[in-house]
Design a protein that fits this description.
The strands form two sheets. This protein has a four-stranded mixed β-sheet with strand order 2-1-6-5. It has a two-stranded antiparallel sheet with strand order 3-4. The chain is mainly alpha-helical. Helix 11 runs parallel beside helix 14. About 50% of the residues are buried. A hairpin with a 4-residue loop joins strand 1 and strand 2. The longest helix has about 40 residues.
């Protein structure tokens, strides 16, 4: 049996079995998600609020920015608190203070330790008991717990609706929440109901179980939320899987050495014909560079809100551009420009195979460009309108802000983008049909290329699987299909194929060995990557088995990264093979940078937070954006820039590149990103982790902890990395538009 056939069988088995398991436990999540009751009543049967109020409250939270303002169940932004951890701690302290006063003490903190332990046991018995009655659809709470709900509702209403109390003014500034973030009392009452339900799921034990719906997350000793044995057991097992997978992969790599290739005397890419549709792709890269600048600007503003509240060097910018909006745009624009760079590269490569455009190919490329512009501008405008409370619940869902990180664009824009991706897929397939008909040696590589393109179009559709008022646990399941499987999964496959394809076209890799290597790499990556999706869902109202699967397979995601040094060295060696490859120095250096960030950002910083016991204490801390920045920009961003430079090298064949400028840009971007990570995000995240272990998640995310002078110093130190990084993006912008300027001026008059 040929090697390729064996690899294709392995690919089919991995994908088929993994998605079967992913689907089965998705069904289990639907069945065992924290229930939304029909009613919440007190012990006398009086209605406090309805299930519809909880659902409307989820929409109110989403219109405010949702996961861009604090977090729920640990997922979201990091400046404001995690509202579930915050509510749970405040509710516990309210009940404990009340019981302490009954015992003659001014507050719980004034009581002696034996009494404190007894009071904790008393409220734990009440809070952890599951009083949801499936037949009646009711959750019943005590009169005292209703008092706590009323008091907390008053506190949050004042916080979000603009109370003039100095303490709340100060907190709002620390959290970068503008006055009247919620402008309607009805919306606020409903959002309080949603906060209660989300926190109820964190402390209420599942039926016939001694752990809560969120597997005892967040850590909070007052209510008995402690790390379970399962967390430690599956953490140990994940480390074993990592070591075992690493050993097998190293053995395979040693056994199958790469074939040496002699580089051609001339650049093969320079002989290919540039078709009209390939030339039309050029404007995509102009937009990519503009979006990078705007995205970095939004990042600078968002980071600065962390040190000056609602001000930007004294200017009240939050009145017109709140933190929720700047952070939304920062995250959303990153997805947009990276995806645009990759899609444009695909549009350039497909016609280059034959040197001919199918009929209307150029028109299709231009139409897709206009559609993408409309989607970007329309979705960003809609998100701002939603956050500014200018849209009702329904209109916000369709055209505004859905409240979910990375997929916050309104449903209309999601559907529009999905249609755009299928148009892109059609534009990719049409030029490749003649190549498949010839049955060339490239068929395996091109097949994987088409599979990755189809997956990019299909898996974004997972973002349409939740509705406006879908249970948060179910919405999170589908959201991570998009964020993990689409962004981290099949884009990774696409990137692997494109890089191999470019090197084969340049005569630096043999087609047969490249095809086998790509299929093998895809099998290895997806073997951990598909079921590794579950590591995002440990504490989002999912069954225990999700933790076991997530811990096991997310460890395997790290395995391919242990050989990343070989990849980096291989790419560096390729760049030195012959004189004409000097023209590709910076695109190849971008691939080397991708290897570095894959190892550090995706590998080390990713595994830092992946094991269950680590994530139990770290979820929602600055260790997450540490991984996010270094993996998203470091890996996918640098790859997007590298692919763009490959295409521009072909488009601007006769121009001498400004090596100083592009070199300055490359090193500034990478050094700036490293400084941002090491000087600010890493130390803040580690200090928060210590606080989370010792005091609880609520404290690690509190203003009391984060506003300490030392923490402020580390946040200000981020300016160093941000400045170096921003200068690098300006250099990239100048370089790309300099190519255009010089070409225009070199045209004969």
């Amino acid at each position: 049996m040929k090697t390729e056939r064996k690899l294709w069988i392995a690919f089919g088995l991995v994908v088929g079995i993994s998605f079967a398991v992913l689907g089965y436990y998705g069904y289990e999540i639907y069945q065992k998600a924290p229930p939304i009751p029909d009613q919440v009543v007190d012990e006398h049967g009086n209605l406090l609020f309805s299930g519809q109020d909880i659902k409307n409250g989820q929409n109110a939270w989403q219109t405010m920015g949702g996961q861009e303002v604090g977090s729920i169940w640990g997922h979201g932004a990091y400046l404001a608190p995690d509202w579930t951890a915050d509510w749970l701690h405040r509710e516990a302290m309210y009940l404990l203070d009340d019981l302490a006063r009954q015992e003659g003490f001014a507050s719980y903190n004034d009581a002696d330790r034996p009494l404190q332990a007894a009071l904790q046991a008393k409220i734990q018995q009440e809070l952890r008991e599951n009083t949801y009655n499936q037949e009646s659809g009711r959750i019943t709470i005590s009169a005292k717990r209703y008092e706590a709900f009323t008091a907390l509702s008053s506190y949050y209403s004042k916080l979000f609706m603009g109370s003039e109390e100095s303490e709340l003014e100060e907190l709002r500034n620390y959290y970068s929440i503008p006055k009247n973030a919620i402008k309607d009392t009805q919306r606020m009452a409903e959002m309080n109901a949603f906060f209660f339900w989300a926190s109820w799921a964190c402390v209420t034990e599942r039926p016939n179980s001694n752990v809560t719906y969120t597997h005892n997350w967040p850590a909070e000793e007052l209510v008995g939320n402690k790390a379970t044995g399962d967390l430690i057991l599956w953490t140990g097992f994940s480390v074993i899987m990592l070591l075992m997978g690493t050993g097998i992969l190293v053995f395979y790599h040693a056994k199958n050495k790469e074939e040496e290739v002699s580089a051609p005397q001339e650049d093969p890419l320079m002989r290919q014909r540039i078709t009209p549709s390939m030339r039309a792709v050029e404007k995509y890269f102009w937009v990519v560079n503009l979006l990078i600048l705007i995205q970095v600007l939004m990042g600078v503003i968002t980071a600065h809100y962390g040190v000056e509240g609602n001000l930007l060097y004294g200017f009240p910018l939050a009145e017109i551009l709140p933190y929720a909006a700047s952070r939304t745009w920062h995250v959303q624009l990153a997805i947009y420009w990276i995806a645009t760079a990759w899609l444009a590269t695909g549009l350039y490569i497909a016609p280059s195979l034959t040197g001919k455009d199918p009929k209307f190919q150029r028109a299709g490329v231009n139409f897709l460009f206009i559609a993408l512009l409309v989607i970007v501008l329309g979705s960003l405008a809609g998100q701002w309108m939603g956050i500014m409370q200018k849209l009702g619940y329904v209109n916000n869902f369709w055209f505004g802000h859905q409240g979910y990180e990375y997929v916050g664009l309104g449903r209309f824009w999601q559907a529009f983008l999905l249609i755009g991706l299928f148009i892109w897929l059609a534009l990719m397939v049409r030029p490749m049909v003649p190549v498949f008909q010839k049955r060339t040696q490239e068929k395996h590589l091109l097949t994987m290329f088409l599979i990755s393109c189809a997956a990019i179009a299909l898996f974004f559709g997972a973002g349409l699987m939740w509705g406006r008022q879908t249970n948060l646990a179910i919405a999170e399941y589908w959201r991570w299909w998009v964020v993990h499987l689409w962004v981290e999964g099949f884009f990774e496959v696409f990137a692997t194929v494109v890089a191999a394809f470019l090197f084969t076209r340049m005569g630096l890799l043999k087609i047969k060995s490249a095809s086998s290597a790509v299929i093998f790499a895809t099998v290895i990556f997806l073997a951990g990557g598909i079921l590794g999706t579950f590591h995002h869902l440990y504490f989002t109202g999912t069954p225990k088995a999700v933790m076991a699967l997530g811990a096991t397979f997310s460890a395997l995601e790290v395995v391919p990264l242990v050989l990343i040094g070989f990849e980096a060295f291989h790419n560096y060696r390729l760049s030195k093979l012959t004189v004409w490859l000097r023209d590709y120095k910076w695109p190849i250096y971008c691939l080397i940078a991708v290897a570095f960030w894959n190892f550090l950002g995706a590998g080390i910083f990713g595994f830092l937070i992946n094991p269950p016991i680590a994530l139990y204490y770290m979820q929602g801390l600055n260790t997450t954006p540490l991984h996010g920045h270094t993996a998203l920009f470091g890996v996918y961003g640098m790859l997007g820039i590298g692919l763009m430079l490959f295409v521009l090298r072909s488009l601007y064949r006769d121009q001498v590149w400004n090596d100083r400028l592009i070199g300055f840009s490359f090193w500034s971007i990478n050094i700036g990103l490293l400084l941002m990570a090491l000087l600010s995000l890493l130390p803040v995240g580690l200090m928060q982790t210590v606080a989370s272990v010792n005091e609880g998640m609520w404290y690690a995310r509190s203003a009391e902890f984060l506003q300490q002078p030392l923490m402020g110093t580390f946040r200000w130190l981020r300016v160093v990395g941000d400045t170096v990084f921003a200068l690098g993006t300006l250099g990239l912008f100048g370089f790309v538009f300099g190519l255009l300027y010089h070409r225009q001026n070199s045209k004969p008059s």
